[in-house]
């Protein structure tokens, strides 16, 4: 094709853009990942790509400008988010190539020579940019999964480390009444090593991404009272030494939709936090079924309470108490919030300094209806 023919094909693309897109969509819809997409989502950046192709034909140029590169890269990223695989993205571009050839043939314009070079150059470059976007996203995903794995492994150390910190604090209260330098030295070593381990875990977790949001746990219907009872049993030695009464006020009929490991973690973190900041009195775990079928739970303590200026940041990662006797890793409540978020629930806290705190959260009590 000479220059006039290039311009003619460019105008043909612009005049028949909607027909071209309709033919392209009809064929692309056969791809597994595209079957559930509506027309605007399926089109994505393709209309803009056709306009750029028309511009290149009119200019008789194979030079791919920055705007065209951005269109192709964005298309690749959006297809990644729509769960396409890389072969499906390559296929949809090749379907577009075929549609362009058919459009030319239907109008007695054959895509050969200079026109074919420009069309193929732009589409091949678009495919390359999409593949590059996929590679980038795959690398990020693999790195994120690795960080999630490390974070969960380290996070599993949080509960025993909290128990060690609490036990050490209890020992330190008793040691002054016992005249035994060896005992004092042993407790000091215990405290030093626990702090060192906490600092190492904190440092590594600072390098990792958020945890919990990527978890695909196996949810099922669980009896809440049984899980609370088990957590209270596990924490009984600490509660006994601190002379704190931990009360399970969850009705026996309350069922909750969760994964066993997540529910256990959620309950233990809340109870451990309450025990840490309560020196006398009691800690109560209660629950009720709301009118909409969710389960509202609360953990109420008679502890030191939280200062008003700290309430907004209480669920932040690495937010911890300034008192060394109660300082942990600073992940307990942030993980609680992430677990609640994973259940599509909500959590809040109310507190009065010197009187205690109440943490309240609500999560589904039954398996959510897929149609809702």
Key features?
13% strand; alpha+beta; 372 residues; 13 helices; 7 strands; Globin-like; Heat Shock Protein 90; 5-stranded mixed beta sheet; elongated
In short:
The protein contains 13 helices and 7 strands.
CATH top level class name of the largest domain: Alpha Beta
Strand order of the largest sheet: 2-4-5-7-6
The CATH homologous superfamily of the largest domain is called Histidine kinase-like ATPase, C-terminal domain
Helix-strand pattern, N to C? HHHHHHHHHEHHEEHEEHEE
Number of helices: 13
Report the average pLDDT across residues: 80
Classify the helix fraction into a percent range. Answer: 55-70%
What's the CATH topology label of the largest domain?
Heat Shock Protein 90
Provide structural commentary.
The protein has 372 residues and is α+β, with helices and mostly antiparallel strands. Helix 5 crosses helix 7 and helix 6 packs antiparallel against helix 7 (113-155). 57% of the residues lie in helices and 13% in strands. It has two domains: 3-146, Orthogonal Bundle (Globin-like); 217-364, Histidine kinase-like ATPase, C-terminal domain (Heat Shock Protein 90, 2-Layer Sandwich). The protein has 13 helices and seven strands.
List the helices and strands and how they pair.
Elements: H1 3-15, H2 17-28, H3 39-43, H4 46-59, H5 66-81, H6 86-106, H7 113-155, H8 158-174, H9 181-206, E1 220-223, H10 224-234, H11 236-241, E2 244-249, E3 255-258, H12 260-276, E4 281-289, E5 294-301, H13 332-342, E6 346-352, E7 356-364
Parallel strand pairs: 2-4
Antiparallel strand pairs: 1-3, 4-5, 5-7, 6-7
């Amino acid at each position: 094709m000479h220059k006039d023919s290039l311009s003619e094909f460019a105008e043909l693309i612009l005049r028949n853009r909607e027909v071209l897109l309709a033919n392209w969509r009809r064929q692309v819809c056969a791809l597994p990942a595209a079957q559930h997409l509506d027309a605007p989502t399926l089109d994505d950046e393709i209309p803009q790509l056709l306009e750029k192709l028309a511009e290149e034909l009119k200019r008789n140029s194979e030079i791919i400008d920055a705007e065209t590169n951005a269109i192709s890269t964005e298309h690749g990223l959006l297809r990644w988010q729509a769960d396409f695989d890389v072969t499906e993205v390559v296929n949809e571009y090749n379907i577009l190539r075929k549609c362009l050839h058919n459009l030319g043939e239907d109008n007695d314009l054959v895509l050969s020579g200079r026109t074919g070079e420009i069309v193929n150059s732009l589409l091949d470059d678009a495919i390359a940019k999409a593949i590059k976007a996929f590679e980038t996203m795959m690398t990020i995903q693999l790195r994120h999964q690795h960080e999630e794995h490390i974070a969960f492994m380290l996070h599993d150390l949080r509960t025993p480390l909290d128990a060690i910190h609490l036990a050490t604090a209890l020992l330190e209260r008793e040691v002054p009444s016992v005249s035994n330098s060896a005992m004092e030295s042993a407790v000091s070593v215990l405290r030093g090593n626990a702090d060192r381990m906490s600092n190492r875990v904190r440092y590594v977790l600072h390098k990792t991404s958020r945890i919990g949001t990527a978890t695909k746990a196996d949810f099922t219907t669980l009896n809440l009272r049984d899980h609370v009872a088990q957590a209270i049993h596990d924490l009984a030695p600490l509660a006994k030494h601190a002379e704190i009464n931990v009360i399970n006020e969850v009705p026996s009929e309350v069922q909750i939709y969760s994964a066993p490991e997540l529910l256990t973690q959620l309950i233990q973190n809340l109870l451990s936090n309450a025990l840490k900041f309560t020196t006398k009195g009691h800690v109560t775990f209660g629950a009720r079924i709301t009118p909409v079928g969710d389960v509202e739970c609360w953990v109420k303590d008679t502890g030191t309470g939280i200062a008003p200026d700290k309430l907004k940041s209480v669920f932040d990662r690495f937010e911890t108490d300034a008192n060394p006797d109660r300082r942990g890793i600073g992940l307990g409540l942030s993980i609680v919030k992430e677990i609640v978020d994973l259940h599509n629930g909500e959590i809040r806290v109310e507190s009065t300094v010197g009187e205690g705190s109440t943490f309240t959260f609500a999560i589904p009590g039954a398996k959510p209806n897929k149609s809702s």
